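Human: I'm a chemist; would you kindly supply sequence and structure tokens for a protein?

Assistant:
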Amino acid sequence: MKKKSIRDKLLKNFSLFSLIPVIIFCIVMLLYIASNVQGKRKDSVCSDLEHQATQLDKVLLQAYQIGQTVAEDEMVNQELAGSFKSERQRYESEIRLNSQLLGISRYFDENIKVYIVGENGGVYKNSPYSLEEKEYEREAWYEQIKESGEPSWFELHSMSYFVKTEEKEFISLGIPVSEEKTGRILGCVMVEIGVFDILHTAETQEEQGNLYLFYPDTNIKIIDGQVELYDNDRVTLIQKDGIAGHEQVEAEQPEILETAKFLTYWKKDFQEKGFGQVARFVTAYQQLNANDWILAYSMPKVEYYRLLISVLIVSVLVTVILILIAYSVSCRVSGSITRPILSLKEDVEKVQEGNFEIVVSCESEDEIGELAQQFNEMVTEIRNLMDRIQTEHERQRHYELLLLQAQINPHFLYNTLDSLMWLIRMENHADAEKMLEALTRFFKTGLNKGREIVSVKQEISNVESYLTIQLMRYKKKLSFSIAMDEEIRDFKVPKLILQPLVENAVYHGLKGKEQGGSIAVDCRKRDGVIVLCVSDDGLGMDEEQRKQIQKQLSEGIVEESESYGLTNVNERLKFFFGDSCTMSVESAQNEGTKVWIEIREEEVYVQNRDS
């Protein structure tokens, strides 16, 4: 009891001593990250967003410049003011204006595409894509531009208004074209800017947050993944694979609302850029100079402060490790005497569980060391005794299987001799001589110099000899075919595994069938599995009888019955191949029977073994 009390005191003192530096370390690390790392993280997010906003602003300003240039171009006004008396005039007008647009826009960003829609029905473009066939002057955006009478920005949309293209995420600018003297609307210039590459290049997109375009005080129709907020303000959610759909926007609704509240609160006195925290999110924003839209990036606070959380987790782990080290040292000091006894106790428990490979290593030269040595000797003796018992069991099992195999040959020999007797009685000496020659060849091949293992080719040879004998007996009532993949001809199997199956097919499948039938032996390799199949088109069996045979095969029942040959072969296969070999039976009444042997080659642990 006294030693136990000292041990507890040591554990307590070491634990307290280890906690002090851990707590100090954690506090210092947290303060350092809060004052330095998080500041750099904020600057990085804002810098990435500013880079995106600058690129977007640059392209939008170019779009505005090219739109105004085209709208004020004299040739454009002349073409839109005229009318077309024929399709040829329309075609010539399109050629002239398309060339003019290509000349004007060649100095600007390639993502900017310019289209002109005239009141006279003309449509012009600088895009290489074909225009969609529709009446553009009846589109809602066209009506809006005519009504406003001034340049109008259209919110982010996922499809072009004019062409079908794999590009996605467009911002459009519409500028009306009017006659200088009368002010009559002649049409409009629509500038479409592909912004996908701009919005998905910054490092902020690798964070666990979302990018938004916020449109304050606009009155444009809501499309795609946009939602309306606060006095007609809207926000569009931009994801890595494009603009979010309605369902995605609904799923992100809490974050969108918090971001919009933050931006709406500041929009009356809006700074050009900034960073803030609202509820569960942090938001960086940057106002665009081209159209006063706001590009914002928002992420959950948990993600933003993940480094602090990681440091806290590491600090806890370090604390736990130090406590474990202190506990280990205390245990080593206080348990130097009891440890060998506890180790011996654990080894005894493992032996009780059946692990006889235990060897106790004890360097003590006292009574404990002597006890450990005697324990090792006892375990060794038990292990040797169990090995002898296992060897005797396997030897007994081997002899039992040899007996099972030996029972097949007399059965076949009896049937063959019976056939020979009938041939001799009928004085059919030529067939009798051929049958006797085939029988001699069968037994010569089957003996295989006393070996239990044969190749698939040898087993097929046995089957061929057997079927030759049966063919002479049943003549036109029997036909057979044998197929074998050359790839498996040398694969080793126990002998006499196919002949009993063929014999079953003859006597139980075809013998009772008046018009006879055929037998097929097929040996293949499919996906690493050796498949041996014996099939016939004989009488077959009902489902109840098939299930009974399959049950005997699954449970390893070997008994005198019509399925004795099957169960005998199945048991010998299990002995040589274990669980890597399975046998199954397919049959239907008056349709025949198939017996399948499947051997998973990669799992075979007994091959090429001779007795």
Q: What stands out?
A: Confidence is low (pLDDT under 50) at residues 1-7, 218-228, 605-611. The longest strand covers residues 185-194.
